[in-house]
Write a structure and sequence with these properties.
- The longest helix has 17 residues.
- The chain is elongated.
- The chain is an alpha/beta fold.
- It is built from eleven helices and 14 strands.
- Strand 3 and strand 4 form a beta hairpin.
- The relative contact order is 0.09.
- The strands form four sheets. Strands 1, 2, 3, 4, 5 and 6 form a six-stranded mixed sheet that branches.
Length: 349
């Protein structure tokens, strides 16, 4: 109880200090910092003091909410465009922004970040997902909509990346940690031929614990970043939520049939049902490995009866502590994604 009261008191003190705009404010940027669970006790006060020295419009520090993510929004006023930045303060005392994370020792880099934000080419335009304008996101989406023409089964995530990189217009950057993860990743067991490049690459990288993220900083060309996945940072998803009715995206999944399943594993049952579904069934191998779930070993049963295919699949998956979701790639081609939903495997948006 004492620890909670002290943390609240420090957060309140930091908010009071940080909510006053610095006298020399020049940048049209207002920053709101949400403190995450487990953030160091002194971090809010340290960040309030540091941010107050960076010529920002205003700084406010408050308690965080579970579903918050770093983001930048933009308003067009009489005096010109103005940015509102929501940053997160994590348990390591780092300030997490939409494209970067900073320690208190990185004052110069943080100042450069805000300077670049205030002068970026998207001034006067609405900023959306990944901190991109609508036009920039459209370019990325089109770039990643090309279907892949090679077999992925037996290839490593590094192989898939190397084969796709030449067909992607934007450059692809990866740091030393990403290169190490790619080198150690196991070969893929799934066939992704004809799937669009974005969904296929996101899936392949996921098995190596990596994600793909488009990035556009002021003065730099639009490019792709491959890095370790972090729940608080947006990354390119393994498929998207269908825009229309699920029945239009995968009509065969909603056809009725009489069925009984007995003496079969989940893997063999789904393999037998896949041709009837009319769409690929794709496992989230990253989650299966982390949770030690083996579909080829789990026995499933279903009493004889008449129902539609999607319900059959979902009932079988529940016996293995799994769940499925209908998704589409960048070209609108449907597939059924099998995973355990949670912070490490969010639902499609």
């Amino acid at each position: 109880m004492t620890l909670t009261m002290n943390l609240r008191a420090l957060t309140l003190l930091a908010a009071l200090v940080g909510s006053v705009a610095p006298a020399s404010a020049q940048l049209p940027i207002d920053v709101e910092v949400a403190t995450g669970k487990g953030a160091p006790l002194t971090a809010p006060q340290e960040w309030a003091r540091l941010l107050g020295e960076l010529q920002l419009g205003s700084v406010r520090i408050r308690g965080g909410q579970a579903d918050e993510r770093p983001e930048v929004t933009q308003d067009d006023g009489v005096a010109g465009p103005r940015f509102k930045v929501l940053a997160l303060l994590n348990r390591s005392g780092e300030l997490v922004l939409p494209e970067r994370r900073f320690r208190t020792s990185e004052r110069k880099a943080l100042s450069d970040y805000f300077q670049a934000l205030s002068h970026q080419e998207s001034f006067g335009q609405e900023i959306g997902i990944f901190g991109l304008t609508e036009k920039q996101f459209g370019l990325v989406h089109a770039d990643l909509s090309r279907p892949i023409s090679f077999s992925t089964k037996g290839k490593t995530p590094a192989d898939v990346l190397n084969l796709l990189e030449g067909s992607i217009a934007a450059s692809v950057d990866r740091d030393a940690l990403a290169r190490d993860a790619l080198r150690l990743a196991k070969p893929l067991e799934v066939e992704l031929r004809d799937m669009s490049a974005g969904t296929a690459l996101a899936l392949a990288l996921r098995q190596a614990g990596l994600v793909l993220r488009p990035e556009k900083l002021s003065g730099d060309p639009l490019h792709m970043v491959i890095e370790r996945g972090r729940p608080e940072v947006e990354s390119w998803p393994v498929g998207w939520k269908p825009k229309g009715s699920p029945r239009l995206a995968a009509p065969k999944m909603f056809e009725f049939l009489t069925i009984e399943v007995d003496g079969a594993t989940l893997a063999t049952a789904l393999e037998a049902l896949e041709p009837r579904l009319g769409i690929p069934v794709i496992y989230d191998e990253h989650i299966l490995a982390a949770r030690e779930i083996h579909p080829e070993e789990i026995q499933v049963k279903l009493p004889a009866g008449k129902t539609y295919l999607k319900r059959v699949v979902d009932r079988l998956l529940s016996q293995a502590r799994l769940a499925g979701e209908l998704r589409v790639d960048e070209r609108g081609r449907a597939f059924y994604w099998i995973t355990q939903f949670g912070k490490d495997s969010p639902r499609a948006e």
